[in-house]
Amino acid sequence: EVQLVQSGAEVKKPGESLKISCKASGYRFSTYWIAWVRQMPGKGLEWMGIIYPDDSDTRYSPSFQGLVTISADKSTRAAYLQWNSLRASDTAIYYCARSLYYDSSPQSPWDYWGRGTLVTVSS
Amino acid sequence: EIVLTQSPGTLSLSPGERATLSCRPSQNIDSIYLAWYQQKPGQAPRLLIYGGSTRATGIPDRFSGSGSGTDFTLTINRLEPEDFAVYYCQQYGTSPFTFGPGTKVDIK
What we know:
The structure holds two protein chains of two kinds.
Chain A: E1 3-6, E2 10-12, E3 18-25, E4 34-39, E5 45-52, E6 57-60, E7 69-73, E8 78-83, E9 92-99, E10 110-113, E11 117-121
Parallel strand pairs in A: 2-11
Antiparallel strand pairs in A: 1-3, 3-8, 4-5, 4-9, 5-6, 7-8, 9-10, 9-11
Chain B: E1 4-7, E2 10-13, E3 19-25, E4 34-39, E5 46-50, E6 54-55, E7 63-68, E8 71-76, E9 86-91, E10 103-107
Parallel strand pairs in B: 2-10
Antiparallel strand pairs in B: 1-3, 3-8, 4-5, 4-9, 5-6, 7-8, 9-10
């Protein structure tokens, strides 16, 4: 059974750093893309970026380039989303999702989703 | 960046009725790169349709997708109580793989 298990909710202060995780099981981790999607409170879905764990090929939305870092570790079958300096506007639920297709092209819909990690940034 | 416009913002219908949701990309996209997702409160999105018209695994056949170019439609025939949710379209042909703002289908 494919599962994406995300790390628990976080409460942070502005300026702090954070790394959240998405641990995959039930499939060959390295050959499916993992996406990160943001959902701010009461708002829609925003595509942040994707990573191909096999070679760590990473693509970012221009809206998030330079603001976050996406990484993956094949040995632990986990993908990560990291901030060096959080802002209040980073308060949101962050979802990871797996590509439907298992190849090196990122052009894929996303069929398995984690339950989301709520990140709250407040002074 | 391809912008997706969804309409209407909210659709108020009764169980058993048909829902017709629109998604209009700001530029032509190949239908093979258009997906629809359903999201219920407190839940992650669920893939419904991909490739413009292919139902994902386990999706009932009352859900159907159609369209091409800059005009795509998600149709839900005979709404069931569990279908009241927010629906998003997404294009995954050109990075960034943008989502539309969503259409909320609520109970009339």
